[in-house]
Structure formats: structure tokens, C-alpha cells
Specification:
Helix content is about 80%, strand content about 0%. It starts with a helix and ends with a helix. The structure holds protoporphyrin IX containing FE (HEM).
Length: about 160
């Protein structure tokens, strides 16, 4: 009972640190899952049609979209200070606003529409800026040990028992 009170008293501190603009880690995971669906659908379509023209789109949706977002979500969940930072919000918005037009423009280019090149070039720089925000966040806000919430809860309970 006392331990519960102690743990719930800690929660507002973490929420306040997150700030209004920080995306939740669930948002990273949901978008990652959406990209996985697109990558898998494109892979199946390529295999079924025998037309592999969009292979680079498939690979980038899978690796940047699915793997990149899922890994970022895991890192931000393991290191809440990094996940709650302004850099995480910059990473989230730059990356997720620019990746769909980048993939669309790459697909258009591969299907023979060279006029898509400026969109591809512009959006890839925005995605790269999002990646730089992530790298800066990792160097600035990822500590030497992940914050293990189960461990923190256990420590809080022991602290209460000791009183
Ligand atoms: C059911 C799921 C998937 C299917 C059916 C599928 C299908 C394919 C096919 C047909 C190719 C082309 C193979 C060839 O050129 O001979 C390919 C290539 C590739 N796939 Fe997938 N794929 C799937 C999931 C994924 C995922 C989740 C990722 C990334 C996380 C991924 C990354 C790649 C990469 C990097 C290549 C090589 C691209 C290249 O050589 O340009 N695939 N996949």
C-alpha cells in the first residue's frame, strides 16, 4: 500500500520531464508496425509479380521505417531522459514527415518519373536531419545504464520497507 503510494508519487516527475511535444514510445512502435506492413506487402507484391523495380523502396521502408523506428522506440523506452527530450521530438517529426514523400519520390523515380528527383533530394535531407537529431540525442541524453522501471519499482518498495 505504502509502496504503491511511493510509486505513484514518482510518476508525475517522469511525465513532467516528458514535456508536451515529446511523442510517446507507443507512437514510435505503431508507426514502425505500419512501415512493416508496407514493406511486407511490397515484398509479397514484388515476388508475386516478378517485377523487382521497387526493391530499393522495399528495402528502405523495411530498414528506415520498420527497423529504424522500432529501434528508436526501444532506445527511448530504455532511456526515458532521451525519449522525453526536445531532440526526440525533432527526430520524430523530421523523420516521420519526410520519410513518406522520400519513399514516394524514390518509387516514382524508379518507375520512370525523373521529375520526382527534387522531392527525393529535399526529403532525404530532412530525413538525414532527423537522424542527426537522434544521434545528438544519443550522445547527449543516453546515460551509461538504462533506467529499468521494474528495478526502480523494486528499489522504491525496499526503501518503503526500510522505514
Ligand atoms: C514477408 C516479408 C517480406 C517479403 C515477402 C520480402 C520480399 C523481398 C523480395 C522479393 C526481395 C527482392 C529479392 C531479389 O531481388 O531477388 C527483397 C529484398 C530485400 N528485402 Fe525483403 N521482404 C520481406 C521483408 C523485409 C523486411 C521486413 C526488410 C527490412 C527490415 C526487408 C529488407 C530487404 C532488403 C534489404 C532487400 C534487398 C534489396 C536490394 O537488393 O536492393 N525485407 N525482399
Amino acid at each position: 500500500m505504502q509502496a504503491t503510494t511511493q510509486m505513484s508519487a514518482q510518476r508525475p516527475v517522469r511525465r513532467a520531464a516528458a514535456g508536451a511535444s515529446s511523442p510517446s514510445t507507443a507512437a514510435w512502435f505503431r508507426l514502425a508496425a505500419a512501415y512493416l506492413v508496407v514493406a511486407v506487402a511490397l515484398g509479397i507484391a514484388m515476388g508475386a509479380s516478378g517485377n523487382f523495380a521497387l526493391r530499393p523502396v522495399h528495402a528502405h521502408v523495411g530498414l528506415l521505417g520498420w527497423t529504424g523506428l522500432a529501434l528508436a522506440g526501444l532506445i527511448y523506452r530504455a532511456f526515458p531522459e532521451a525519449g522525453a527530450s526536445r531532440l526526440a521530438a525533432v527526430h520524430f517529426w523530421l523523420f516521420n514527415l519526410a520519410l513518406p514523400p522520400m519513399m514516394g519520390a524514390l518509387a516514382a523515380l524508379l518507375l520512370g518519373h525523373p521529375q520526382a528527383l527534387p522531392v527525393l533530394v529535399g526529403s532525404q535531407f530532412v530525413v538525414a536531419a532527423g537522424v542527426l537529431a537522434f544521434v545528438a540525442n544519443v550522445f547527449l541524453n543516453v546515460g551509461s545504464a538504462p533506467r529499468d522501471s521494474a528495478h526502480a519499482a523494486g528499489a522504491a518498495a525496499i526503501e518503503v520497507e526500510a522505514r
